[in-house]
Automatic annotation (TrEMBL):
<dbReference type="InterPro" id="IPR007197">
    <property type="entry name" value="rSAM"/>
</dbReference>
<dbReference type="GO" id="GO:0030488">
    <property type="term" value="P:tRNA methylation"/>
</dbReference>
<feature type="binding site">
    <location>
        <begin position="206"/>
        <end position="208"/>
    </location>
    <ligand>
        <name>S-adenosyl-L-methionine</name>
    </ligand>
</feature>
<dbReference type="GO" id="GO:0070040">
    <property type="term" value="F:rRNA (adenine(2503)-C2-)-methyltransferase activity"/>
</dbReference>
<dbReference type="GO" id="GO:0005737">
    <property type="term" value="C:cytoplasm"/>
</dbReference>
<feature type="binding site">
    <location>
        <position position="183"/>
    </location>
    <ligand>
        <name>S-adenosyl-L-methionine</name>
    </ligand>
</feature>
<comment type="similarity">
    <text>Belongs to the radical SAM superfamily. RlmN family.</text>
</comment>
<feature type="binding site">
    <location>
        <position position="282"/>
    </location>
    <ligand>
        <name>S-adenosyl-L-methionine</name>
    </ligand>
</feature>
<dbReference type="InterPro" id="IPR013785">
    <property type="entry name" value="Aldolase_TIM"/>
</dbReference>
<keyword id="KW-0819">tRNA processing</keyword>
<keyword id="KW-0963">Cytoplasm</keyword>
<dbReference type="InterPro" id="IPR004383">
    <property type="entry name" value="rRNA_lsu_MTrfase_RlmN/Cfr"/>
</dbReference>
<dbReference type="GO" id="GO:0046872">
    <property type="term" value="F:metal ion binding"/>
</dbReference>
<dbReference type="InterPro" id="IPR058240">
    <property type="entry name" value="rSAM_sf"/>
</dbReference>
<feature type="domain" description="Radical SAM core">
    <location>
        <begin position="87"/>
        <end position="320"/>
    </location>
</feature>
<feature type="binding site">
    <location>
        <position position="108"/>
    </location>
    <ligand>
        <name>[4Fe-4S] cluster</name>
    </ligand>
</feature>
<keyword id="KW-1015">Disulfide bond</keyword>
Length: 331
């Protein structure tokens, strides 16, 4: 798909033609300009040539049918992965914001592939449209979008914000901003900027360790943005927005899942509107997942300390669609 020249092609026509074309793409989720019969044939022909609606993709589905992962090939041949998670009450698309990632987190397959380029806003919206089209055929819709796929969203800030505007557009995909979340490895400038946005999107921080020494081992970015700075930025964000912040904590056996570490985590998380989400580690080559029993003990410590704690359901492991497993390619 390439919508870059949509405005340009239609600039010579009355403005309602652009409105019709956008409705066809974002609202009616059309896959072929030829079927957009509200537009005259010659406009359809020009759009089919310069703004194709086909999405070049390969999709896998998990054995339980709850997860779909798509590898999308972009106009320059770069590939990104995007995931649909089907919950009983919602359908969440996990969007990639970059091709690869420069952050190099030790537990993450994307980090191990290095950084190629930022995605444009259209390329991020395309990932949502891809699954919106599939769900439409099942009389369902995308209800939530999380920027938790490949890449660090705050290092592609402006394009991510433009993508959110398009995803949020009432005349288009119409996904409410409260149903959109951004997850960061802790880019302080991004947290500060988001605090000043009028958008009501949710913020999540990939934490994964209760202290700087362990966090720096797992996440090189911690050397640049230590915990103290991240938590100060989060406190300012909460003071300005009055919104909850989710701290994600990947449970890695023998690395960050001891009772002492749970107690240390409880200490720094004991603040209003802080929430902890414990995430099962998914194998990417180096570490092992914590046992269910250890996760439960870890969780008990947090809950007893009064920390609001949730546990993320495991999604799409069989097709490498789970957290930290996305790379450019299927298989
Ligand atoms: S966890 Fe996120 S920030 Fe870290 S390397 Fe992976 S994609 Fe990049």
């Amino acid at each position: 798909m390439n919508l870059n020249s949509l405005d340009k092609i239609l600039s010579a026509h009355p403005s309602f033609r652009l409105t019709q074309a956008k409705k066809a793409v974002f609202c009616d989720l059309m896959e072929d300009w030829d079927e957009v019969t509200s537009l005259p044939k010659e406009i359809r022909g020009a759009l089919a040539k310069d703004c194709p609606l086909e999405i070049d993709s390969a999709m896998q589905t998990s054995a339980d049918g709850q997860t779909n992962k798509a590898a999308i090939t972009l106009a320059d041949g770069a590939r990104v992965e995007t995931v649909l998670m089907r919950y009983a009450e919602r359908n969440t698309v996990c969007v990639s914001s970059q091709v690869g990632c420069a952050m190099g987190c030790d537990y993450c397959a994307t980090g191990q592939m290095g950084f190629t380029r930022d995605l444009t806003a259209d390329e991020m919206v395309e990932q949502v449209i891809f699954f919106a089209r599939i769900l439409k055929k099942e009389n369902k819709r995308v209800s939530n979008v999380v920027f938790m796929g490949m890449g660090e969203p705050f290092l592609n800030y402006d394009n991510v914000m433009a993508a959110i505007d398009a995803i949020n557009d009432k005349n288009g995909l119409n996904i409410g901003s409260r149903h959109i979340a951004i997850s960061t490895c802790g880019i302080v400038e991004g947290i500060k900027k988001l605090a000043d946005e009028p958008k009501q999107v949710s913020l999540a921080i990939s934490l994964n360790a209760p202290n700087d020494s362990l966090r720096s081992e797992l996440m090189a970015v911690n050397k640049r943005y230590p915990l103290k700075n991240i938590l100060r930025a989060v406190d300012d964000y909460i003071a300005k927005t009055k919104r909850k912040v989710m701290f994600e904590y990947l449970m890695i056996a023998g690395v960050n899942d001891s009772i002492e570490q749970a107690k240390a985590l409880a200490k720094i998380m004991a603040k209003p509107l802080y929430m902890v989400n414990l995430i099962p580690y998914n194998f990417t080559g180096k570490y092992k997942a914590s046992s269910a029993a250890q996760v439960q003990k870890f969780r008990d410590v947090l809950v007893e300390a009064g920390i609001y704690t949730t546990q993320r359901k495991r999604f799409g492991r069989g097709i490498k669609a789970a957290c930290g497993q996305l790379v450019a390619g299927l298989g």
